[in-house]
User: What shape does this take?
Amino acid sequence: MNRVLIIGAGGVGNVVAHKCAQVKRVFSDIWLASRTQAKCEQIRRDVRRITGRTLSIAQVDADNVAETVRLIRRVRPNLVINVALPYQDLSLMDACLATGVHYLDTANYEPRDEAKFCYKWQWAYRRRFTEAGLTALLGCGFDPGVTNVFCSHAATHLFDSIDTVDIVDANAGSHGHAFATNFNPEINIREITQRGKYFEKGKWVVIPAMSLHHSFHFPEGIGPKEIYLLYHEELESLARNIKGVKRLRFWMTFSENYLTHLRVLQNVGMTRIDPVTYQGRDIVPIQFLKALLPDPASLAKTYSGKTCIGCVIEGTRNGKRRTCFVYNICDHAACYREVNAQAISYTTGVPAMIGAMLMLTGQWLKPGVWNTEEFNPDPFMAALNTHGLPWKETLPKKGFTGFLR
Ligand SMILES: NC(=O)c1ccc[n+]([C@@H]2O[C@H](COP(=O)([O-])OP(=O)(O)OC[C@H]3O[C@@H](n4cnc5c(N)ncnc54)[C@H](OP(=O)(O)O)[C@@H]3O)[C@@H](O)[C@H]2O)c1
Assistant: This one.
């Protein structure tokens, strides 16, 4: 029997709960705990209505290690799936070490007072997890997560050597609001207002935020979209794990409307992460902004259109140069019909369930702290096709990636 404890009852936690409930032979017992128990109750009602299975639920403050340890001792799970916020990563890893439980998350640790995400804090747990015989699987969402596995799949099956990877992430959907973010607004805005950064010839190159952009032609009817270079966390692990890679970049689509709102919010100080005093009390502007913006999960009902996330990979095979595009297309409305979610939550929650499934069945279990590209990509790629995120690989026509060179 396998028991999982999912922590975080937001947009992604909802999808993980539904997808685990769909795979009863692996996830025989599912617990969901979060800061606000009412959100767990709502997800429990939806999962019961759609799958007929009943989750156990609990309230927990995952910033509090002692409280989380008490919950883990009560539940006795085989695995903790962390889909709360990046701020909780280290306290949850500590709680897993204290209780002897495997760990999985979808986003790397970030300190609250500094908009800086990187793996150094979590990689520093490698020795402790190894000595405890426990596995910690980091960044097992779509990007990071699936994008890393697309790269290891390409390195295993499509290339003898990889020179460049360009990860492209398009949301060509429409939610009908003037401005909203597709996952937690505080985490999302902290990420995209950072300076751009990419890896080239063994070094990191830093550029002003949103200063490099191009048009990219996305497949399957999405068409041309403007993509902007961002720093994204999978670049850090891929730079270590793809041997001999010369360049790694990450690009995301933004509309003019989105960028205009973001610019105004930045200019007036609403994206600040330091406290300001207002009427005698300290408030953090970005947290206040989060309270004003739509809850990303609430966008799902009316969201239409598709996402496309994939890796454009260049390298050599049998002495010849080649370019491959490995990608997934996901439809917002189809996600809503299946699990009451929009595609951004869905494309994050499904890979988290798949990673958990591979850990619980022993296929992705080895003591230590790992990123997804460090495991055999084959069972993960196969599971994407059967659990809602089918992928394609194409050898694009000449000119397809012209600007990327
Ligand atoms: N890899 C990827 O592709 C990818 C893509 C998108 C998102 N993500 C990551 O997925 C995670 C979840 O995103 P989301 O959109 O679902 O966010 P969300 O809707 O804001 O949900 C976060 C949930 O965590 C709970 N939470 C926050 N602090 C907590 C604490 N101290 N103790 C217990 N629970 C706590 C929140 O509780 P309340 O309800 O009380 O606020 C909320 O239910 C984030 O880490 C995000 O960075 C990864």
Q: What stands out?
A: Residues 146-343+391-404 form a domain with the Dihydrodipicolinate Reductase; domain 2 fold (CATH 3.30.360.10). Residues 7-13, 34-36, 39, 60-63, 83-86, 88, 106-107, 141-145, 183-184, 187, 296-297, 344, 348 surround NAP (CB under 6 Å). The chain has two domains: 3-138, 146-343+391-404.
